[in-house]
Specification:
The chain is an alpha+beta fold and 132 residues long. The protein has a single domain, classed as 2,3-Dihydroxybiphenyl 1,2-Dioxygenase, domain 1 (Roll). The chain is 23% helix and 40% strand. It has three helices and eight strands. Strands 2-3-4-1-5-8-7-6 form an eight-stranded mixed β-sheet. Strand 2 and strand 3 form a beta hairpin. The radius of gyration is 14 Å and the shape is globular. The structure holds carboxymethyldethia coenzyme *A (CMX). The site of carboxymethyldethia coenzyme *A has 19 residues, from helix 2 and strand 5.
Length: 132
């Protein structure tokens, strides 16, 4: 698996974009709202991987809940796989809990599925596969 991106939960997406543009000395190259996840995302290229800033678009967003409970910070790590369906099957056969058994549409033209942080030393893991 290749580390595709690290997701960071932020309170104010606009000011976080300014901050990371300055820190990484690169421009945010894409912004996208993922309605199903109730998040707005902003992407930065960092070598082979990316940073994905995540802001809540709605009070019921998991990002809002996460920030209320834990504050801003690293929210998940995403690994790119060739075939998300066979990876889900493999991980389920090994007894891991998939938060969604069917891949969903994520940002950046990906199919995504999440693994529960409790089973991965406190880290929410995302699997992702490019749609084409
Ligand atoms: N990383 C680590 N731990 C997390 C976490 C995260 N991102 N989110 C929640 N937790 C922990 C909580 O701290 C809590 O721990 P305790 O039981 O010790 O208090 C536990 O998990 C349960 O958390 P909760 O606040 O009660 O939240 P829920 O159980 O309702 O939901 C989770 C947690 C992971 C199942 C849910 O956030 C989820 O389904 N996430 C996947 C979808 C997602 O995160 N989408 C946004 C990203 C979209 C994108 O990249 O496109």
């Amino acid at each position: 698996m290749q580390l595709e991106h690290i997701g960071i939960a932020v309170d104010d997406l606009e000011s976080a974009i300014d901050h990371y543009e300055n820190l990484l000395n690169t421009e945010c190259y894409k912004r996208e709202v993922v309605e199903e996840q109730k998040v707005e995302t902003a992407f930065f290229k960092t070598g082979e991987s990316k940073i994905e800033l995540l802001g809540a678009t709605d009070d019921s967003s998991v990002i809002k809940k996460y920030i209320e409970k834990q504050g801003e910070g690293m929210h998940h790590m995403a690994f790119e796989v060739d075939d998300i369906y066979s990876e889900i099957e493999r991980l389920q056969a090994d007894g891991y809990t998939l938060l969604n058994e069917e891949p969903r549409a994520g940002a950046d033209n990906k199919l995504i599925a999440f693994l529960h942080p409790k089973e991965h030393h406190g880290v929410l893991i995302e699997l992702c596969q490019s749609k084409y």
